[in-house]
Amino acid sequence: MITVFLYYDDVPRGLAWLTHTLGARELTRRATSGLMTYAEVELAGLPLVLTDRTDPAAGGTPARFQFTLDGVEPLYQRALAAGAQVVATLAVDPTGRPAFTVADPGGYHWTFVGSASTDDESSPAADDEIGSLTADGTSPIDRLGRLTDLATPFAVRVLATLRVPDLIEQGVTDLVDLATACAANRDALGRLLRYLAHRGVLTEANPDVFALTEVGRLLCERGAAGQRGWLDLDGLGARMDLAYPGLLHSVRTGEPAYATVHGRTFWAELDAHPGHRRYFDELMMSQQHLTAPQVAELYDWCDVAHVYDVGGGSGALLTQLLSSHPHLRGTLVDRPGAARAAGERIAASGLADRADTVAGDFFGALPTGGDVYVVSRALTDWNDRDATTILRRCAEAAGDRGRVLIVEVLPTEPFMPHLSPFDLQMLVVVGGRERGLTDFESIAGRAGLAVAQVLRGRDGLTLIECVRADRSPVAVDAAVEADSCVSS
Ligand SMILES: C[S@@+](CC[C@H](N)C(=O)[O-])C[C@H]1O[C@@H](n2cnc3c(N)ncnc32)[C@H](O)[C@@H]1O
Asked: What pTM value is reported for the model?
């Protein structure tokens, strides 16, 4: 048997690194005058002795150790999560095997090489292929495991719900203090935090002391794009995600599963919970912040006197349109709770004299007399049949003189809805779907509308202007001759 001796200036640090970064198993430790100067661990079957550099036998320069393992990728992820200093990232080495190297606090380099060649011609028979490695060092069974793992998504959400990232950022880094601060069971919290260190959300540089990785920092309250709020298990975002257990129902029936899982439809949920409604409106507003100014600028609002924003939600778009075009008047139509909240926001913007709100249902008759009926990002919430009905109601209200303006942020071209989970999310939460331009043109056609023009903004923003397909040429001339306007 060979035993390798490692000499460290700081044995506890070396021990912590080996156990937490590489998963070495501690066998024994000894202290001299209260200071740990000796420890034994086992790593991949090899016994290692860590001892103080003052040992006369030390005298060594830093050395490199190379281990051959069955699957190096999990170890690489673990080392990354623990914040290891990476000397060589995981890549295929000249022998065709995945390998990486990390350095420890003593300056030793640790290289781990996968035992299987990635492009071995004599690759195993199909039955064995689940264990074979690809260039990134993973096997199909590893990848299936990652695709189906539920521990990680829930562990991250629990971390966010308990606000552990915020606590760590405020300097509460010790497990005992963290457990007290978030009223959690210390043992269970420790298991959660260590698992998330393994998954790269946290690091555990010293035993039971945690820090945030770049990923973990995103889970702080002030993290970019509000992920903490979305992942909070008490919030609306998590409720939307938790509709996924109903995906089987959606796939069998083509219907949303939100009510199946949560007991009422998504829209009824917003009606029943003003807090959820507010969160949803804020989410929409954060997107309108990017798109509404473009809508105000791209479309020619000069000959429009009165705009209806159908399913107008937060009122952010209508507010922008009225602020940019002082000649415009506007009406927002939405469910009662939404219309009420939008009315308050519009009033707070000082635009109440030119805007009003109507509690209404876009599947029923809409108020007539508008020049433009905007439907912004509302059709994606519905299947083709319902989206067609909404457009038909707008067409009926617009009459011969009015126009219908579909505003959507379209996915990238070529249109491939399967490239993001959004299409499935729409299905399972509200029964909606992602659509490309031709899909919108097609439902507009079924609603009796003809596409007059398509305007494109930044980041997929698309405006599809429609008029009634059966409108008379006289009405077209009259609409074009409307008054000129001033924009700000
Ligand atoms: C995805 S949001 C879009 C909101 C807004 N147009 C925007 O672009 O930010 C869809 C809106 O449709 C509204 N909505 C849902 N069902 C409705 C109905 N039956 N009648 C009117 N509005 C409805 C929702 O309340 C919500 O405000």
From this structure: 0.73
